[in-house]
Amino acid sequence: MRALAAHNTAGEISSLVIGPPDGPPVAAMLESDQQVTVVDVPDDIINLIRESGDELQVLETLKAYRVELEGEARLVRQEEAS
User: Fold this and answer.
1) DSSP class of residue 31?
2) In sequence order, what are the beta bridge partners of 38?
3) Angle, CA of 71, 72 and 77, to the nearest 5°
4) CB 64 within 8 A of CB 58
5) Which of 17, 25, 52, 69 could form a disulfide with 4 if both were Cys (CB 3.0 to 4.6 A apart)?
6) Long-range contacts of 47-53 (CB under 8 A, 24+ apart)
7) How does DSSP classify residue 26?
């Protein structure tokens, strides 16, 4: 799965739209200090979304991630970020 992540220059995510690569186009509203990056979604997040059904648990899990912009953009856990 791919995601459209709206984030600041530090990679802190403000919104995330997840969908299949062949899904319909999506858009995100940005603040002036934000940018949008397309990233792959880690398997643990995909599994949590599919199996949990608990939106609060999914949101809490996503708070542990940020967008890593060094090299190929990707979602990483906060403690993995360089």
Assistant:
1) -
2) 4
3) 90
4) no
5) 17
6) 49/18
7) -
